[in-house]
User: Which sequence fits this backbone?
């Protein structure tokens, strides 16, 4: 999660912040609003949703195993590390 999402969530040591963070993660986990307009390649690696009057995006990036460069073969888990980022739309 980016700093903007962390600020939206609030202090996670308090139950309210922890619950809010869990709600955002659950929304990303259950996301299934893919269609030909927002996922033309069928990769299911980007999504948009609203939470607490804010627009959030999530995206998956594909890096090499050292996290230095893009993966040479994103479909191959033997050479790819996937990184999930959840961010506010204005942080994109």
Assistant:
């Amino acid at each position: 999660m980016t700093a903007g999402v962390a600020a939206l969530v609030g202090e996670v040591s308090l139950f309210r912040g922890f619950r809010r963070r869990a709600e955002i993660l659950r929304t990303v986990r259950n996301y299934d609003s893919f269609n030909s307009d927002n996922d033309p390649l069928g990769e299911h690696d980007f999504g948009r949703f609203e939470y607490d009057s804010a627009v959030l995006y999530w995206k998956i990036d594909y890096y090499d195993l050292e996290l230095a460069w893009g993966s040479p073969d994103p479909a191959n888990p033997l050479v790819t590390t996937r990184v999930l980022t959840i961010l506010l739309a204005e942080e994109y």
